[in-house]
Amino acid sequence: MNSPQIVLSFNEIMFFFTRAAVGAGLPYGLAEDFARSSIWIAAGGLDPAAISANALKSLDEAQSTISASQTENGAETVLKSSGEKQLSVLYAGPSVCDWISARSADSNKNQYFSVKNVDHPFLLAAAIGALNSGSWEICWQDSGGALCTVLTSQDGNWKTSWDPTDISQMSAAADVTIKAVESSLFKAEKWKGKTSYSEKNRKLVLETGVQVYEAWPIIHSFFSRCLVPSTEESRKSGAGAGLVDTD
C-alpha cells in the first residue's frame, strides 16, 4: 500500500468527517453520527475515508436520499426510502440505532429491523458497532448473491463472515436485516476462523494514529464546503489572523 496521505487522531476524524457530511448535505446531528461510525471503522485498523467517502458522494449526487418512512409489521420494523432512490445509510444508521435504544426497554426479544435498498450496507454495521449496545447480527446479500454478515458485540469486538477483502468495494445497495443475538455466538462453530477485529486494536490506533489514503481528498473536498472564504472585511472584524502580528 502507498504511504498515507494524512494521519489523523480520533478527535480529528470527528472534526473533519462531521463537517464533510454537512458539506454533503447532511444535518449536523446526523453528520456527528456519521463521524462516530467512521471512528469505529478506524478503531478496527481500517481506512475510514475509503469506506465512507462513497456514501457522501451518493447523497451529494442525489443517488440516495434521507427521505424515508418507517413501519412496523408484527415483530419486524421496516425502514425504506420514501421514493424510488436508494436510502442513504447516513440516515438509516442513526434510525436503526434509535430503534435499538428504544428496544432495550422492550420485552419482545423477537423483534428485528429491516432496511430496504440501503446504499452502503457495511456502514449500517459501523453505526451499530459505534453505538456499543448489545450484540447484533447484520446481514445482507452482495451484488453476486453471497450472504454478508457482520457480528458486533458490546465489548467492542466484531467479526465479518467474509475472508479479508476490500470493504470499500462492498458498496452495492441491498436489503439489510438487523437482529439481536447472544454474545456466545462469537464462539459458535460457524464463526470460527472468520475475520475478527478486536477492541485491543483501538489502543494501538490511539498510539499510532489513523492512516488515511487515496480517498482523503474526497473527504476534504466536502469538508472545505463548510469553510467561509476570508475577505479583507472579515479579517478586519476579527476572523483569522490580524492585519498586524503583535505576538
Distance between the termini: 43 Å
DSSP strand (E) fraction? 15-25%
Order of helices and strands: EHHHEEEEHEHEEEEEHEHH
**Strand order in space, largest sheet:** 3-4-6-10-7-8-9-11
Total E-strand runs: 12
Rg, nearest Å: 19 Å
Number of DSSP helical runs: 8
Inertia-based shape: globular
- Portion in helices: 25-40%
Poorly predicted tracts of residues: 241-247
User: How would you state the average pLDDT, rounded?
Assistant: 89
| Class by alpha and beta content | alpha+beta
Largest sheet: 8 strands, mixed
Give an account of the 3D structure.
The protein has 247 residues and is an alpha+beta fold. It is 37% helix and 22% strand. The protein has 8 helices and 12 strands. It has helices at 10-23, 28-43, 48-60, 89-103, 122-131, 200-208, 216-224, 232-236; strands at residues 6-8, 64-65, 68-73, 76-81, 86-87, 112-118, 136-141, 147-152, 158-160, 174-180, 195-197, 210-212. An 8-stranded mixed β-sheet has the order 3-4-6-10-7-8-9-11, with helices on one face. The chain has a two-stranded antiparallel sheet with strand order 1-12. It has a two-stranded parallel sheet with strand order 2-5. Strand 3 and strand 4 (76-81) form a beta hairpin. The termini are far apart. 37% of the residues are buried. Mean pLDDT is 89; it is low at 241-247.
